[in-house]
Write a structure and sequence with these properties.
The complex is a heterodimer of chains A (about 375) and B (about 280). Chain A is of the alpha/beta class and about 375 residues long. Helix content of chain A is about 30%, strand content about 25%. The longest helix of chain A is centred in the first third of the chain and has 17 residues. The termini of chain A are far apart. Chain B has about 280 residues and is of the alpha/beta class. The chains are: A alpha/beta (about 375), B alpha/beta (about 280).
């Protein structure tokens, strides 16, 4: 496993390598756009992460990065505009209308496609949230362009095309996907996959207002209400500093208690790998992986997790990865920083006790003296 | 009432292996299953039919062997199965797939009655894009209700549907109209065990098999590789980290000593963490 990025010996797809010239009607598509996801007064942090990524792409292309804000008229939307500038936008497109107060597919699709057709971006990035995925699929189909979901890496090729890399085949390999002959090139990225750029106060400069071309009467779907998650159900895995997770190596659902005990002892969030969710041992909102949550904690402890690519891409942003697994050849040891080949079921209680010993006030006093 | 459920036959991802030398997928002998997310859509459709009457048609696009998935769906109690299969569909991305499926759904509507609801799963476990459902909705001009956790009410006479839709940080209550497309969230129901009668009927039933032309598709350039705006240029295994994990030697040590050694190693590498964890922990 020493060599990097080995190519498959066979061609990946029938048209691989073929580059036709971009059709005339797309030649004036320029600049990078980032959808600023505003819901119930809050901008989703993934939008800022994407502005950071959009900035890098725009700099390579020698173009500008623009934020796209869709929301109700007023302070909340203006605040989102200001934040977009603070996180690196050169300009912001804004559509303000009362009917954009809550997310609904119909008016948001209309607003976004109208903006794209009018102002012609070459790249459009959205967060792979429930909102972003709902919107991106509709917009790409309306525009008949390519959309690459859940990218883990974005880059610009020598010829200026967007190279979007994502896991494939159930997360066992990575693939790089291009939208060669259509514009905009669309991609979604999950929260926490890209790092958060520095926030720098900046004056609100170029804001381009666009009118929404539909009225409330044209919109069939109505929002009757919203029920926020209870505090306990709201696992803040993605933004937690310390995370402990269990995998199939735990043997049975009853052993998840060991993971939860360790998490409680060190004030961590807990999660699991995908097979455990498929077996119904843990709820889907605690799944760590390409199809679940991406995390960037300071410390990540993986117990009995083998480390398939779909898991790896979601935890690689962690500062310190500790792996506990009985199999010395498990792929997780290829990307963990600290490894221990042992049975997690027996080891986790000992580890919980060791942390408790070390962190108890009594032993801290002893260390200090 | 007529409900169409789109399903996909996928390789059982827990059994896919990558060849250690060539980095190619070893597909041989990997069993196929109905995409697990689609089973929540199928069960929801069957429940609505059981409550309000009508028919459930399952539809898939795939190679001839995808008929197995359809037979399984008939075994769960679906009334009819349509297999869309043609070499023109090979290499479809999500845009080309939603085109082919939407044409087939339109044809299903002409042949067996216009659907009131089209169901799909939240996403597939092999592609994981969640794009085909919204793509179908857009092409057929159906109202789009994704990540539905619960169908609260369905009023066929008024053509009205109320659902709970999962979104960031909570649940939206939505009211919309038929015909609509619903993508069902996982864990919302449990697929039934098919009855003996359904199993017998599944074995006897003929799966309707359509080519692209049968489904009313005239422009084959919108199908398969040619109809796909995205191109996969490169498939590769990720680079290994230059250095492997530093292993803690387990030989002849008690679990207690090992655990102390690991915590010491963790805080040596992340000294700032010790204060933070001590502050947060044990509460």
């Amino acid at each position: 496993m020493a060599t990097a990025n080995r190519e498959t010996p066979r061609p990946a797809a029938g048209r691989a390598g073929i580059k036709k010239e971009l059709p005339e009607r797309f030649k004036d598509y320029r600049h990078v756009w980032v959808f600023i996801e505003l819901e119930r007064g809050q901008v989703h942090p993934v939008s800022f992460e994407l502005l950071g990524e959009g900035r890098k792409l725009a700099d390579k292309l020698g173009v500008q990065v623009a934020g796209v804000v869709l929301g109700p008229a007023g302070g909340v939307t203006q605040h989102a505009v200001a934040e977009a500038f603070a996180y690196g936008a050169d300009l912001v497109y804004i559509v303000e209308a009362p009917l954009l107060a809550d997310y609904r597919n119909e008016p948001f699709t209309k607003a976004m496609t109208d903006l794209v057709v009018t102002y012609k971006p070459e790249i459009l990035l959205l967060g792979a949230t429930t909102l972003g995925r709902d919107l991106a699929g509709s917009v790409a189909t309306t525009l008949l362009t390519g959309l690459t979901a859940d990218c883990t890496e974005l880059d610009v090729d020598a010829d200026g095309s967007l190279a979007a890399t994502r896991p494939t085949f159930g997360g066992s390999l990575l693939c790089t996907i291009y939208t060669l002959n259509f514009r905009p090139q669309m991609a979604t990225v999950r929260p926490r996959v890209m790092s958060m750029p520095q926030r720098v106060d900046k004056p609100v400069e170029r804001v381009i207002q666009h009118k929404l071309s539909v009225a409330e009467d044209d919109i069939v779907t109505k929002v009757l209400g919203f029920l926020p998650d209870s505090q306990s159900a709201k696992a803040n895995l993605a933004y937690a500093d310390v995370v402990v997770a269990g995998g199939l190596g735990l043997g049975g659902a009853e052993n998840l208690q060991l993971v939860k005990s360790l998490a409680r002892a060190i004030g961590a969030e807990y999660g699991c790998s995908r097979p455990l969710v498929q077996k119904g041992w843990m709820s889907a909102d605690r799944q760590i992986g390409q199809t679940g949550k991406t995390i960037r904690p300071k410390l990540y402890i993986a117990a009995g997790i083998s480390g398939a690519i779909q898991h790896r891409v979601a935890v690689e942003g962690a500062d310190l990865i500790v792996a506990i697994n009985t199999d010395p050849n498990a792929p997780i040891f290829d990307f963990a920083h600290l490894g221990i080949v042992t049975d997690a079921i027996r080891f986790l209680p000992a580890l919980t006790e060791a942390f408790t010993r070390r962190l108890s006030p009594h032993s801290r006093d002893k260390l200090a003296s | 009432m007529h409900i169409v459920v789109c399903i996909k036959q996928v390789p059982d991802s827990t059994q896919i292996r990558v060849h250690p030398v060539t980095n190619t997928i070893m597909r041989q002998g990997v069993p196929t299953i109905i995409n697990p997310y689609d089973l929540f859509a199928l069960e929801e459709a069957l429940r609505l039919r059981d409550a309000d009457g009508g028919e459930v048609t399952v539809l898939t696009m795939g190679p001839p062997m995808a008929e197995d998935a359809l037979r399984k769906a008939l075994g769960y109690g679906a009334d009819r199965a349509v297999l869309l299969t043609d070499r023109y569909f090979a290499g479809s991305d999500t845009l080309a797939t939603s085109f082919a499926l939407s044409q087939a759904i339109a044809k299903v509507g002409e042949t067996f009655g216009t659907p009131d609801i089209v169901f799909t799963g939240k996403q597939t476990i092999d592609g994981d894009t969640a794009q085909v459902g919204p793509g179908i909705a857009r092409r057929l001009n159906l109202l789009q209700l994704t990540y539905v956790a619960k169908i609260v009410s369905l009023d066929l006479a008024a053509g009205e549907i109320k659902v709970q839709r999962r979104c960031e940080g909570g649940t939206q209550m939505l009211q919309s109209r038929l015909p609509c497309l619903v993508t069902m969230l996982e864990g919302t129901n449990e697929i039934r065990r098919g009855s003996i009668e359904d199993a017998l009927r599944a074995a006897r039933s003929r799966v309707v098999r359509w080519s692209a032309a049968d489904a009313g598709i005239e422009d084959f350039t919108r199908c398969g590789l040619r109809g796909s705006p995205t191109v996969v240029k490169r498939v590769f295994a990720p680079a290994a980290r230059a250095e492997k994990a530093a292993q803690i030697d387990t030989a002849e040590k008690t679990l207690r000593d090992l655990a102390d050694e690991l915590t010491a190693a963790i805080f040596t590498r992340q000294p700032a963490l010790e204060q933070e964890v001590a502050f947060d922990g044990g509460t």
